[in-house]
Amino acid sequence: MGTKGKGLVGLNVEELVAQLNKALADEWLAYYQYWIGARLVTGPMRQAAASELVEHAADELEHANRLAARIIELDGTPILDPHEWGKLANCSYLKPTDPYVKAIIQQGVVGERCAIDVYSRLLALTKDKDLMTFELALSILKDEVRHEEDFEAVLQDLEQMEKRRS
Which terminus of the chain has fewer CB atoms gathered within 10 Å of its CB, N or C? Predict the structure, then answer.
């Protein structure tokens, strides 16, 4: 980013880069959690759940790309070592040790709720101080809210199906 562009950022750029790297770690972990979950998921509606997981994994990877680009624009360095993801992340990686569809999707809901909190904090941090990062965080937040809704819809469908079977 050029000197004039950096001058538009009205907060500590190093701290902002640190927060963006934490969000980047979250996105990589979410990507893998959803990617592997889509391959392991079992039970009723597993195809619908796997489709949601694959779609959301692609979105998380796109978020990681956009965050890395913004970090570089701010003359920062994106996380270079994947071993650091778990240490830096705001949100926990939830291992899909129970492949049953309900468990996998509930983990997705937990992850999306954490992501919503992370991007809400980034919005508060950058509001009126860094419009480019603010717009990035807002765009990603919209996706995370939609992801939570999608996962909750799968859980509701599962509950309806279970009620009909009873």
Answer: C
